Amino acid sequence: MKVSAALLTVACGLVAAHGDVPIPRILGGGKLFSDLRARHITGLARERAVEHVHNKRTRNDKRENTSGQCGKGYGSCAVGYCCSAEGWCGKGSDYCTSPDCQINYGPACDGNRKPSGVDTSSVPRPKLGSVSIGGNGIYDCVNPGEIAITFDDGPYLYTNDLLDKFKSYGAKATFFITGNNIGKGMINDPSTPYPAVIKRMHAEGHQIASHTWSHENSSTLTNNQYTNQIIWNEIAFNSILGFFPTYMRPPYSICAKACQNILATLGYHIIYFDLDTEGYLMDDPTLIQTSKNIWDEAINGANVRTDSFLNIEHDIHYQTVYNLTDYMLSSLFKHGYKSVTVGECLGDPASNWYRAGPDTTPSSGPSTTPPPSSTSTNKSTSRSTSKSTSTSTSRSTSTSTSRSTSTTRTTSSTTTLVPDSPITSTSTSKPPTSTTAPGGKPISTDGQCGAANGATCAGSTFGQCCARYNSCEDNALLCLARLGCQGDYGVCN
Questions:
Q1: 482 pLDDT band (50/70/90 cuts)?
Q2: Quick check: is 39 in a domain?
Q3: Judgement on whether residues 222 and 353 belong to the same structural domain of the protein
Q4: Could you give the angle at the alpha carbon of 176 between the alpha carbons of 173 and 177, nearest 5°?
Q5: Are 392 and 275 in the same domain?
Q6: Do 320 and 353 fall into the same domain?
Q7: Domain Chitin-binding type-1 spans what residues (predicted)?
Q8: Is 152 a catalytic residue?
């Protein structure tokens, strides 16, 4: 595969900036550019930005800053406002769209808006199957003769048409879904087409995986923020399907040790790739041939008896969906490869691809109704497999969704959270019998804890552990010592 000098520079820069960050062998660093071209795609409805007169200032009071500068050295915007990539406070898509919006300085950034649905953080997470979790990630399929084509960043305007193409070929894909990026809205918003698209993916035998909530760079986030990025996407998936995935791909292929530890704790398989056609850089009729050439160079030089590929594409790009996809699928079958999901190419049974969400029973989750798997190497047999299993799968999905959405333990989709607000859970602790805990520390009476507040959570009605950001919690994840729980001010796991 030919690699441009400019992209090599980016890849090398990533290695220098993130010494322990795994970089996919075929230029995973190129993923850094994946969203840059999607923001201005013709046809995407964009909210009109509120116009502001910007007044330059050196520091801002975040309670009043609605149109001034923001970001490092300037501070945060007012509650309800966003901090644009250029560092100005405002409202509308030009300010609030993630991942551009600076979530550390814009309380209303898309990346700080929690989806409605039942909290999934307390779901038990035993290891499923033999595929590794956490760690440096997985780059390759294990079964020769198979190709797993994957798509990041969607669903989007073109995804339904993409599903039509895969159905016509009898092929399977894996979709690494982002919850709220590039101004598309939340994936579980019933006013959008996305819930139906995601249900269709599952019903037609494709694998659904996570690409985080708003496509943030993990190296710029706190542990709590990154945990939210994973849990919030789970909440959205669960509200649509009644379950959520165990597979994920880190945005920009960046996932250092802290990120790896969080994903291991949450039970995720970290998936990268070994074939990148760079379609996200070639979203133009005059450029897409370059991506086809990259594909041909890899496939033509391989042996179907011994080789396999884990490919990355993006369904937010027009030329990828309407031009490159047909080319890849035709070539795949022509060379005798089988089109499979990531789980299949790793030899992982479909029952391991998801976890049942809260308030669902195993019978409504994927453990008893896994996505139909592709078992053929030709179009006709694979198409027959999809048709025979899609009806029952769709029926199961509908049942689990209605059960999930009927729960009363939901949160508002319009709620905006400051960046370090933790995922909270309802406390079942009994009132303290004393105002002082063993050891002499005052018991928290307002949910705040730690050295900064001079209070412990042990015996508090707000929760027994003091989480990383000085709040009392009973959340199983936030009470883990490896995620920053403060053992001197409460009980950690």
A1: low
A2: no
A3: yes
A4: 120
A5: yes
A6: yes
A7: 67-111
A8: yes
Q: For the chain, what is the domain count? A: 3
What SS3 state is found at 209? strand
Q: Can you tell me the distance from the alpha carbon of 248 to that of 301, in angstroms, rounded to the nearest whole number?
A: 29
- pLDDT of 61 reads 52
pLDDT tens, residue by residue, 60-85: 454 689 999 999 999 999 999 999 99
219: domain CATH number is: 3.20.20.370
pLDDT at 26 (0 to 100): 36
Domain contains 236: yes
Region of residue 68 (phi > 0: left; psi between -120 and 50: alpha; otherwise: beta):
beta
DSSP 8-class letter at 106: -
Whether 33 maps to a domain, the answer reads no
> Which tokens go with 175?
């979709």
Strand-pair category, 243-245 with 269-270: unpaired
Q: Compute φ and ψ for 317, nearest 5 degrees.
A: -115, 130
- Give the DSSP per-residue string, 171-207: ---EEEE-SS-TT---TT-TTSSHHHHHHHHHHTT-E
**Residues 80, 202 within the same domain:** no
Q: Among the options 202, 206, 211, 314, which is catalytic?
A: 314
End-to-end alpha carbon distance in the chain: 47
Structure-token pair, residue 205: 């035998």
Task: Looking at the structure, tell me whether residues 218 and 265 fall in a common domain.
Answer: yes
| Interstrand relation of 269-270 and 82-83 (parallel, antiparallel or unpaired) | unpaired
Q: What count of other Cβ atoms lies within 10 Å of the Cβ of residue 371? A: 27
For residue 61, give its domain range.
Answer: 47-106
Q: Taking a C-beta distance cutoff of 8 angstroms, is the pair 240, 219 a contact?
A: no
Over residues 298-343, the pLDDT tens digits come to 999 999 999 999 999 999 999 999 999 999 999 999 999 999 999 9
Looking at the structure, tell me whether residues 175 and 267 fall in a common domain: yes
Residue 334 has a CB neighbour count (10 Å cut-off) of: 9
* Range in 244-248, 249-253, 442-446 the model is least confident about: 442-446
Host H or E run for residue 473: strand 472-473
